[in-house]
Write a structure and sequence with these properties.
This protein is 92% helix and 0% strand. The chain is mainly α. The chain has one domain. It is rod-shaped and about 110 Å long.
């Protein structure tokens, strides 16, 4: 403290002012750094949730599209006219399965597991309806769709 007594009041005030400015600058820098870090984390979290929602939506849309193709099949008597519909359905279902698998890898919750189980059941009843078309005709397939496939589809959507 004896050294401070030798320094003039003016110099001490200037030093105190610069010390105060340095502390405020450091405080501002730390606040901005934490704010940017929190902002980045929040953005990543929102982007991740958005991507998951889009994957779920994509899977649902593909299932709906495949179902529309199945309903068209149920009204198409000629086998040759059904072949392009089968290809389109297969592509839509593969895309829906890919979206569901990606979603299940990222998010392992009971809702996702239930969705995957319903998707699997739907795939089985869907395939059974297609087989009914080919082996037993359109009327049997329509009955199978109404009794088996449609209830699972309603649960899935």
């Amino acid at each position: 403290m004896p050294k401070l007594k030798n320094i003039s009041l003016r110099v001490r005030l200037v030093m105190a002012f610069f010390a105060l400015v340095a502390v405020m600058s450091l405080s501002t820098y730390l606040s901005m750094s934490f704010s940017q870090s929190a902002s980045t984390e929040m953005r990543l979290m929102v982007e991740d949730q958005t991507r998951r929602a889009l994957l779920a939506q994509r899977a649902a849309k593909r299932v709906q599209f495949a179902t529309i193709q199945l309903l068209t099949l149920l009204q198409t008597p000629d086998r040759e006219d059904r072949v392009p519909l089968y290809r389109t359905m297969d592509q839509a279902l593969l895309s829906a399965d890919a979206a569901a698998r990606t979603l299940s890898k990222e998010l392992n919750t009971s809702q996702i597991q239930r969705l995957l189980e319903l998707r699997e059941r739907y795939g089985e009843t869907f395939q059974a309806t297609v087989e009914e078309i080919e082996f037993n005709g359109l009327e049997a397939a329509q009955a199978h769709f109404v009794n088996n496939t449609q209830p699972v589809l309603n649960d899935l959507l």
